[in-house]
Amino acid sequence: MTAAFDANGAAGGPEAAAAGAVDVARDFDIAIVGAGPVGAACALLLARVWPDPARILVMDARPAGAAAGDPRALAVSEGSMQLLARVIDTRELVAAPIRMVHVSQRGHFGRTVLAADEMGVAALGQVVRYRELIAPLEAALAASGVNVARPVAGAPVADGDGWRIELPDGPARAALLVHAEGGVFERSPAADEAAPAAHAAANGAPDAPRAEAGRATTSAARVRDYGQTAVICEVEPALPRRGWAFERFTRGGPLALLPVDDGERMALVWCAAPDEAARIAALDDARFLAELGNTFGSRLGRFRAAGPRHAYALGQLRRDTGNEREVAIGNAAQVLHPVAGQGFNLGLRDAAALVAALAEGFGAAPPADAPATAAVVASSGDPIASPGLAAAAAPAFDPAAALARYRAARQRDRDFVLGATDTLARLFTLPLPGMSHAAGAAIAALDLLPALRQPVARALMFGLR
Q1: Which family does it belong to (predicted)?
Q2: CB–CB of 215/221 below 8 Å?
Q3: Burial class (CB in 10 A: 0-12, 13-18, 19+), 454
Q4: Helices in 317-434 by DSSP H: which ranges?
Q5: What is the DSSP string of 20-43?
Q6: Under 8 Å between Cβ of 89 and 73
Q7: Who's near 249: CB < 8 A, 6+ residues apart?
Q8: Which phi and psi (to 5°) does residue 50 adopt?
Q9: How many Å apart are CA 114 and CA 103, to the nearest integer?
Q10: Dist. CA 427–CA 412, nearest whole Å
């Protein structure tokens, strides 16, 4: 049982757990900074394998429930749905399946379709509203035995062989710090007022700047500004195609449409140069819908309604942590362009692999009917924390070796996704002679050659190992 407390440190009963809970113990094995989808899932996966979940702390700068009005949609791959099913009942999510992904290039030949039935799955993924995903994750955290503290505004400070953390009711320590939120692309303030909330629609980043409860302190960041801004809203087509998602490449940047709710509406991510994006976002509904139809084409008929528009600067940011007592996952480790909707999925795979490495390093033992490792390799190839790991006699917790294994294990998948999204974000916008024709030929080759298309679809669903 955990003791709930409010922002002033006042204790309450279990019913206050949604507001934040901290165990009376002040010494934690692991502190996770960020209670967004990746951080929450990481904590819940850890709670299934850790000898004492009360020695896990999750902290966030925002109060619980802050995402209740968040309108964003996440593209959740089939592999990510399998991981989420380990910690929440995904059958209760309000989700729209993606069974087909249509990829094309405006004004040039070449198109391909990725199909779920070709891959032997019911859906390539699901589109889930951010608020619909975070609510069950927060509820599961409250019942997990993991300690949750929020809001916590101060950054953890390195202190000897661990970290000192100032919680609302006093100081605490943790042996390992996991940064799971806070990675957003920021253009220079003069470039775009919306820049601090970059790329939120597809990658699960916060939709407004906020104070962070810590950020990787030993990381070196590599940054690329794409010179693009995403205009995001929901639209209603006259001829909806349930189960279909669309990725259309233009000279200004990619345009994506994802089904939401019952498929009658679609989440739009329209990328363009910053000045052009500002112009598009400022159009009245009639002109906005007309320009969208002209850019996207007639596959869904006329667009007849649009929701409020939001604009976010786009770039890529990659951090590498070098401290043996901290690690960054998800948006704290990398910020992606929203093309192909890979940010959240890459972050969730980060979380699963980290849990597997830590459980193995701590000496957690699998149940009798599971493989003799701390991770189960599913048919998809994903590392998934076993649901029944029991604690074995283990030495004192020393995360250094586990973090080294984790970083090595994630290198290939991370490099692939960062490289692929970077290429897709820029390839179709390059003003080089013949580039559009070459890109169209590449799309056509995917359509003609299942031996190329299927590995691409599998990598998007499950990542690389």
Answers
A1: Belongs to the UbiH/COQ6 family.
A2: no
A3: middle
A4: 343-362, 400-427
A5: -EE-S--EEEEEEE--SHHHHHHH
A6: no
A7: 103, 104, 105, 106, 255, 424, 427, 428, 439
A8: -80, 140
A9: 8
A10: 22
From residue 102, give the alpha-carbon distance in Å to each of 47, 115, 246, 316: 39, 9, 5, 25
Tell me which DSSP letter residue 15 carries: G
Angle, helices 450-462 vs 435-448, to 10°: value is 90
Q: How many H helices and E strands in the chain?
A: 11, 26
The answer to whether the bond into 308 is cis (omega within 30° of 0) is no
Residue 348 identity:
L
Report mean pLDDT in 10-residue bins for the chain, 465 residues: 34 40 68 96 97 95 83 92 97 96 88 94 96 94 95 90 91 94 58 36 35 44 90 96 96 96 93 97 98 96 95 90 84 93 96 94 48 34 38 58 93 94 88 74 82 91 88
pTM attached to this predicted model: 0.83
What pLDDT does residue 269 have? Answer: 96
Residue with tokens 């608020």: 131
Give the bridge partners for 248, in sequence order.
104, 255
Q: Where are the alpha helices (DSSP H) in 258-399?
A: 274-282, 285-296, 343-362
- Are the CB atoms for 263 and 243 separated by under 8 Å? yes
- Strand 170-179 versus strand 162-167 pairing type: antiparallel
With contact defined as beta carbons under 8 Å apart, do 259 and 266 qualify?
yes
Q: Hey, what are 318's tokens?
A: 């990659």
Q: Give the list of residues 6+ apart from residue 402 with CB closer than 8 angstroms, or none.
A: 357, 358, 360, 361, 362
Q: What is the DSSP letter of 118?
A: H
CA dist 109 → 22, 127, 427 (Å): 58, 28, 15
Do 245 and 256 touch, CB atoms closer than 8 A? yes
- Could you tell me if 406 and 209 are in contact, meaning their C-beta atoms sit under 8 angstroms apart? no
Q: What separation, in Å, do the N-terminal and C-terminal C-alpha atoms of the chain show?
A: 38
Which pLDDT score, from 0 to 100, does residue 363 have? 60
Domains in the chain: boundaries: 3-462
3-state secondary structure of 350: helix
Contact at 8 Å (CB) between 302 and 187? no
| pLDDT of res. 187 | 62
Residue 246, pLDDT score: 97
